[in-house]
Amino acid sequence: MPDVPTALEIGYDIVMSTSYYGLDAPKGLPKPVRDKLIQAFEKTVKDPEMITMFTKVNATLAYQTPEESGKRIQDEYNLFLDIWDKIGKK
User: Fold this and answer.
1) Residue range 14-23: average pLDDT?
2) How far apart are CA 47 and CA 43, in angstroms?
């Protein structure tokens, strides 16, 4: 798309090269179940054996709380909406 400016050309010095994976659950999940899933996911991501396995394939594991993950997703969504508006797409 030769006529579409890059993010850098419209003033955003960003590089988006990270893949994120997470765990989703249905809205209204009972708190005890939610808490158990969060605990298990955090334990898995922080497990030294898991970290070693991911390091061997040049990947990084990083745990984010549901709130941190939600904020990151919302911030990136807002950034992309702003970029989309600046390149004249509605």
Assistant:
1) 76
2) 6
